[in-house]
């Protein structure tokens, strides 16, 4: 049960910031509901390990991380997934991550200078900003 997601995109997070990024992500995800359990997670988790609990797979290429669909696990969205994307913001120099939900909803997170901006409607919680209130979208016109 859950809301299946398919992320894609790439972010510039310096490799030298990985330990600090993982610490921020662990702290942010620990206080939210989702698949990550800090009590059973090894303390030497990498950003790629943490991304799995956020419904993504990532591969590091120097200072860049590439997001993809987690076809090895069960890529479901949760409050912890939102926390992951918010917690990495201070470490991201630039980039964008696109999310496609199981119902065709599409939203993205754009990062610049340590800030995150959401574009689109999050199909899982109905928000138009991370941890925002749900909003009703107008019914699209169909010919």
List keywords for this structure.
3 helices; alpha+beta; 143 residues; seven-stranded antiparallel sheet; single chain; 20% helix
Distance between the termini: 34 Å
Shape: globular
Order of helices and strands: EHHEEEHEEE
Provide the structure class.
alpha+beta
Describe the biggest sheet? 7 strands, antiparallel
% residues in beta strands: 25-35%
Task: Give average pLDDT, whole number.
Answer: 90
In short:
With 143 residues, the chain is of the alpha+beta class. Helix content is 20%, strand content 31%. The protein has helices at 18-30, 47-53, 79-87, and strands at residues 3-12, 56-61, 64-69, 76-77, 94-101, 106-112, 115-120.
């Amino acid at each position: 049960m859950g809301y299946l997601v398919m992320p894609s995109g790439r972010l510039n997070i310096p490799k030298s910031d990985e330990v600090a990024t993982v610490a921020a992500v662990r702290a942010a995800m620990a206080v939210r509901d989702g698949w990550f359990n800090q009590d059973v997670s090894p303390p030497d988790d990498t950003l790629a390990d943490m991304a799995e609990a956020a419904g993504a797979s990532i591969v590091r290429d120097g200072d860049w991380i590439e997001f993809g669909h987690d076809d090895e696990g069960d890529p479901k969205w949760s409050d912890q997934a939102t926390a992951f994307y918010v917690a990495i913001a201070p470490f991201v120099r630039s980039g964008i991550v696109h999310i496609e939900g199981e119902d065709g909803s599409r939203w993205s997170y754009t990062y610049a200078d340590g800030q995150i901006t959401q574009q689109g409607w999050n199909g899982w919680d109905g928000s138009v900003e991370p941890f925002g209130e749900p909003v009703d979208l107008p019914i699209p016109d169909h010919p």
